[in-house]
Amino acid sequence: MRAVLYARYSSDRQRETSIDDQLRAGRTLIAREGWHLAGEWGDEEISGSTPVALRPGGKALLAAALASRFDVLVLEGLDRLSREVGEQESIVKRLEHRGIRIVGTADGYDSEARGRKVMRIARGLVNELYLDDLREKTHRGLAGQFDRGFHVGGVCFGYRSEPVDGADGRRLVVDEAEASVVRDIFEAYAAGDSARAICHRLNAAGIPSPRGGTWAVSALVGDRARGAGLLNNQLYAGRLIWNRRQWLKDPDSGKRRYVERPREEWQVRDVPELRIVPADLWASVRARDRRFGVQGKGAKMRTLFAGLLRCSCCGGPMTAIDARRYGCNVHQDRGPAVCANRDAFRRRDVDQALLGLVREQLLAPEMLAQLQASVRAGLRAATAQASRAGKASAARQAELEGEISHLVDAVAQIGLSEALKARLAAAEAELAQLQAPPPETIDVERAASMALAAYRRRLLDLQAALERESDRERTRELLAEIVGPVLLRRDDAGDWAQMEEPAQRVALAGSASGNGCGGRI
After folding, report:
1. pLDDT tens-digit profile of 55-88?
2. Distance, CA of 105 to CA of 112 (rounded, Å)
3. I need a surface site. Which of 122, 320, 419, 482 has the fewest CB within 10 A?
4. Residue 115: inside a domain, yes or no?
């Protein structure tokens, strides 16, 4: 019997040794049972509410299960797989369906034991309730600390958190060095400077951003409706808001996102001692926002290769800087102090070069052979199904003809009642429907040739075919699988689109303005 181990821990109260302890217990059980240890996987500091398929170790475990590389899964308990009932049931059923035995070293679960379903559901419910209880207790504790006047939550730019003497809590205090930067930003914005120009100056001066990196426009403007962004943070005006939003996890993607709480749940406190921006300056910034509008969420990616193009200097994204050109987003957003690449590439040249590469791969002989094989297999399956349906139809017709004959005899003997009339009409209608001419026999080879011809015609105008697709995100995923990340590079020989896997580069037609990373390469 081939056995594998899986371990996981999630909180900062546990350490890497927790993984080692779980694996050690599993190895002991495997040795005692005389099984062969075929593999070990672990996930550190990953919540039990994160889907198994989105964890590095969990993904490897599922891949090995699909490949039938082991017979027994040993873990500390089912909560190591998931703390959510739905996710746990899905994973366990998939594994057990493939004949994989699941054994818990601590919770006593064994998929070969009687009553395992009841035990699994009971433990899954307990695990999920544990998560809910932990979440509620954590929030209740934070609310109590806020009511007692302590600081809870993160620390934003311009402040630092300090422990309160003689109390179990922390407080915010103004960081004068960062506060000076905040006031400079507000003054420049109120004077009419753009957020982009302000970011360029901050990066040129070497002033670190709130996260320690470089400044971006989104860090300043954010989203006014959500109070996100430095220019919208009411704490700078001496107004502290807590419990405004909460984290919720998408059950499909496993990603967390902010969700606004109802306004009546917000807790607001005036904190004049934490004011950094004077009232008149705060009002000037708000007046400018009302006068010119506030930048909302970023525009959706509209170009086919959005998210795939990278700058050859800084590795940042190359985006559509206008209707005709691609340029480095880092250079545009953060300034030449962060990336000096001023090169711009014609969108038409880049798109046509990459579409040509995609078309070439889609027309490769092995791809065409695979397409025809898929069409043939599908048509043969449809033909076989139609044949089975035809035989069933013939058998049913014989049954109906016999039934109609019996009904006619009954009418001759006892007369036409309403029940006999209705049944006779229904049988005759069903027989007439089954006696319709059968569909023409499919010529599999001819249909495969026609499908290949249609495929070639569509590839002639690949860009139009891709842009007609309603699911643009899925289209980008497919393009990413073919071309992967693409560096746009300029050197003395011309402009190039360079791919890493497979390593190759494609020349771009024409030329563009710019001098590459501050000079010719």
Report:
1. 899 999 998 998 889 999 999 988 888 877 777 8
2. 14
3. 419
4. yes
State the Cα–Cα distance between residues 174 and 224, nearest whole angstrom: 23
CA max distance for the chain? 108
pLDDT in tens, 434-472: 777 666 666 777 777 887 787 777 776 666 666 665 566
Token pair 């579409």 in the structure block, residue: 355
2's enclosing H/E stretch is strand 2-9
Q: Based on the domain organization, do 84 and 34 belong to the same domain?
A: yes
**Does 113 score more than 70 pLDDT?**
yes
Q: What confidence tens digit (pLDDT) does each residue in 279-291 have?
A: 999 999 988 877 6
- 163 and 279 together in one domain: yes
Partners of residue 9 on adjacent β-strands:
44
Average pLDDT of the residues in 296-323: 78
* Shared-domain flag, residues 175 and 111: no
Taking CA atoms, 173 is separated from 180, 209, 231, 243, 273, in Å, by 14, 19, 19, 20, 8
pLDDT tens track for 34-47? 999 999 999 988 87
Do 112 and 191 share a domain, yes or no? no
**Residue 159 belongs to what H/E stretch?**
strand 159-163
> Are 50 and 79 within 8 A, CB to CB?
no
Residue 87: which of 253, 259, 246 has the closest Cα?
253
Q: How many domains does the chain have?
A: 3
Determine, yes or no, domain membership for 338. Answer: no
Same domain assignment for residues 35 and 120: yes
**Quick one: DSSP state of residue 315?**
-
| Residues 76 and 29 both lie in one domain | yes
* Closest to 411 in 3D by CA, of 434, 398, 427: 427
**69 and 179: one domain?**
no
Q: Are residues 434 and 378 in the same domain?
A: yes
Q: Is residue 192 part of a domain?
A: yes
Q: Are 70 and 36 in contact (CB under 8 A)?
A: no
**Average of per-residue pLDDT across 164-190:** 90
Nearest alpha-carbon partner for 179 in 146, 157, 197, 161: 157
Can you tell me the distance from the alpha carbon of 60 to that of 58, in angstroms, rounded to the nearest whole number? 5
